[in-house]
Design brief:
- Helix content is 55%, strand content 19%.
- The longest helix has 55 residues.
- The chain is built from seven helices and eight strands.
- The chain has 278 residues and is of the alpha+beta class.
- A hairpin with a 4-residue loop joins strand 3 and strand 4.
- It folds into three domains: 109 residues, Orthogonal Bundle (Helix Hairpins), CATH 1.10.287; 49 residues, SH3 type barrels; 92 residues, Alpha-Beta Plaits, CATH 3.30.70.100.
Length: 278
């Protein structure tokens, strides 16, 4: 009986020693895995903070920096989780990555348009071909930029409509930024009936342009004679404005009205469109 108890005690002691060894080994692996994940967590936090600071200086939409930074944060954490499982628990990283890759491919194929627009949105925010308030022509839409978001860009047209343009289309199309340099050239034409003193007409128009506060003095406005014909004299007026402060269509209309009134007072008549000979 005593021998039996000794045998059972020996087996129990050996089992406890093996359990203790395995527990210590498992504990060390878990600790190593947690340590690896903690390192990647700190890296993810640093990356998120850096991206927020960088995007915030370039973004034209308030939530973009948060979205992009959060995506980078999750990506770094995912890499950290895989590394922790490999270091702490001996998980086959190759098989895991292959499985994640197949799943990612399937998900990516299902939402490829969303991902394409989002990636294009990030690139637009980084490159900054335009900002909010700029007057642009892109992808068949023309107007002022109302917002630049990760998926699309909002254009407010002159007709008061709001156009949602997917960023992938913008990224692959020609973009004309009419506000890129802060000034814009406006051109208008008119034609006086019969013979007239061209120098007097040019002086009258130049005086009107110089008196308008919305027309820039540098570069200076120009009044040019650009047509001589039997039915009258054709003139071209060129001037620069700040598109952020003034509408080109409104200023052009105002200038033509003032020129018409000033020339009528001098006894000069402008030709209507149907009076101009082809």
């Amino acid at each position: 009986m005593i021998t039996l108890f000794r045998y059972m005690f020996a087996i129990s002691a050996d089992y406890l020693r093996q359990f203790e060894t395995q527990s210590v080994r498992l504990g060390s692996h878990v600790l190593l895995g947690l340590l690896v994940f903690l390192v990647f967590l700190l890296i993810a936090l640093a990356v998120r903070k850096a991206i927020r600071a960088a995007i915030a200086r370039m973004s034209t939409q308030g939530q973009v920096d948060h979205i992009v930074a959060q995506l980078a944060y999750v990506a770094v954490l995912a890499i950290g989780a895989v590394a922790a499982l490999s270091a702490g628990f001996g998980v086959n990283v190759t098989a895991l990555v292959a499985s994640l890759g197949l799943a990612g491919f399937a998900i990516g194929f299902a939402v490829k348009d969303v991902l394409s627009n989002s990636l294009a949105g990030v690139l637009i925010l980084v490159q900054r071909p335009f900002t909010i308030g700029d007057e642009v022509a892109l992808a068949g839409a023309e107007g002022r930029v109302a917002a630049v978001r990760v998926r699309d860009t909002l254009i407010k047209t002159g007709e008061g409509t709001l156009v949602y343009v997917p960023n992938s289309i913008i990224f692959n199309s020609i973009v004309t930024n009419k506000s890129a340099y802060g000034v814009r050239l406006v051109t208008c034409r008119f034609k006086c009936a019969g013979a007239a003193d061209t120098g007097n007409i040019i002086n009258i128009c130049s005086s009107l342009l110089n008196d308008r506060a919305e027309i820039l003095k540098s570069p200076p406005p120009q009044v040019l004679l650009n047509e001589l014909s039997g039915d009258g004299l054709g003139f071209q007026v060129k001037f620069w404005i700040e598109p952020q402060k003034s509408s080109a269509d409104v200023v052009r209309s105002t200038v033509l009205l003032l020129i018409n009134d000033a020339l009528l007072k001098k006894g000069l008549r402008l030709l209507n469109a149907d009076e101009v000979a082809d």
